[in-house]
Amino acid sequence: MSATPHTPVPQRLDAPLPMTLPRLAEKKRLGEAIVMVTAYDYPSAQVAEAAGVDLVLVGDSGAMTVLGYPSTVPVSTEEMLMLARATRRGLTTPLLVGDLPFGSYEASDELAIATAQRFIKEAGCDAVKLERGGTSVQRAHAIVEAGIPVMGHVGLTPQTAIALGGYRAQGRTAERALTVAKDALALERAGCFALVFEAIPGAVTEVVMEHVKVPVIGIGAGPAADGQVLVFHDLLGIYDGHAPRFAKRYGEIRAQMVAGIAEYAAEVRARRFPGPEHVYSIDADELERFRAGVQRAA
Ligand code: KIV
Asked: CA–CA separation, 85 vs 187, rounded Å?
């Protein structure tokens, strides 16, 4: 038996090739913008696949957008794995990154490796993401040493937003910007294949980009990053909660969903749904026999 891992074979010769780490690095080298979006289930993954994005992140933002928690903090590893498994089933081409939830990697290298392995083995992720510099740098290094690709995340790191003074832009003083830069460079040295910069001034991103060799994916970090990521529900206008100012809306899907359900409810109440086209038929003589049978049985 071949030891080569099974990679889904593209159906058409012109079908896009699955995204890999070398292809991602090549995109940076060529100056091609990298597109990442979050997804949390089978349909959102299928939508991301059909739209041709490069990377899909099963973000812990799913804690809020699909699980209804007030922040990313409460989501568990089991819940994230369930979202990641569903997302995996809907994807063929983009690289799939699983977000390690708060509390699932910080305490020790062993814990970080064990959790990262679950995302790879049990959910089929290609890589994992973790937040912050500091002790996360050592955790990222340990996971990379264990053979799992890691994406770092600096700037506004929602898992520790309280310690950062709330959900607000980071790096707006020279000192704070230097902290962001140092975290980014330390994560790169730890072996991260890419970095997320969240909510930092565009000019700070520009300066840090001069020193970072791995792809940088920005979210509220200006246009200088190698690519951009947005939260699926913010991007399409599905989420009803607060959306940050950097989250551009490309759709108003929630309004369409509410209108659709409201119209359905109105038609049911007015007995206009189901119509004849939604009903199964039965031959007249079968119906007659059935009627007689019911009468006998009654
Ligand atoms: O959880 C998430 O969606 C993220 C992105 C904002 C990068 O971490």
From this structure: 27
